């Protein structure tokens, strides 16, 4: 009986990584995965799809160089296929930034570029999953996921908020606008004309001014914020990508998408108000109009994002079928 380590692999039995070991017993070869002291038996060589298990063939010198060569060529080949649509997607996104700088008159072109770039990114996910995933899978994302959704969801929320903020300059014809009137504690006679200041987020602003009503003059602060549809598309794309390793468990998948989306927008829409409240009075969050605005804005932006995510998941499935043809 002899045994040989042929490389690192992801166990199809328990999901952990380990050394892939081939054991020869009276002329037949059996596949095992060794996790430290524990062993998992996967079956006779002819019944195990090695290409779906092996992650790296670093220890190939202990086995035949032919297998290593075969895997290297396959990995190299797929790398090219995945990177092409990815680079095209990136190029289109950068072009959208370039056109966006031309002014609001170009917003239709920006939207067209964002949509093309989104399709390119979805294509690269589809290519990756229909070929490369068998060899490597989403190993980096899976490693973070193995620490649980409690870490993965906050990480997604932080990334989503960053992505939305940096894509706000990509103005498109459609946007979610949010104007929240808050009673201001500045005395009416101190503010005779409306003062406008930039808000904390790009595209947001605060204006403080008098509002004449039947009961007299009162000062109000208006907090304005707009999230263009381009930011929502790109955020949906990010969440779709990050959710791919979860796709096999429907319950975790739905939990992940719902919580990540809702929490991201809740923070985004509340942030300008918190900043304002610190300088005014924290009790603004007790105002019915403020709560209303937060709930409605979060719900609408989240519903749109989840709709995009569903469309993207369907598109990936369609693209995967097209690639296999
Ligand atoms: Zn195992």
Model description:
The protein is an alpha+beta fold and 325 residues long. It has two domains: 2-63, no CATH class; 71-175 and 226-324, no CATH class. Helix content is 52%, strand content 22%. It has seven helices and nine strands. It has helices at residues 65-100, 107-130, 139-145, 149-167, 229-243, 250-279, 288-324, and strands spanning 2-10, 17-25, 28-35, 38-44, 54-56, 175-183, 195-198, 205-213, 216-228. The strands form two sheets. A five-stranded antiparallel sheet has the order 4-3-2-1-5, with no helix packed on it. α1 packs antiparallel against α2 (107-130). The longest helix has 37 residues, at 288-324. The radius of gyration is 27 Å and the shape is elongated. The protein starts with a strand and ends with a helix. The mean pLDDT is 81. The protein binds zinc ion (ZN). Zinc ion binds next to β3.
Domains, number:
2
Give the helix level as a range of percent: 40-55%
Structural class: alpha+beta
- List low-confidence stretches: none
Name the helix and strand elements from N-terminus to C-terminus, one letter apiece. Answer: EEEEEHHHHEEEEHHH
Which ligands does the model contain, each kind named once?
Answer: zinc ion
Shape: elongated
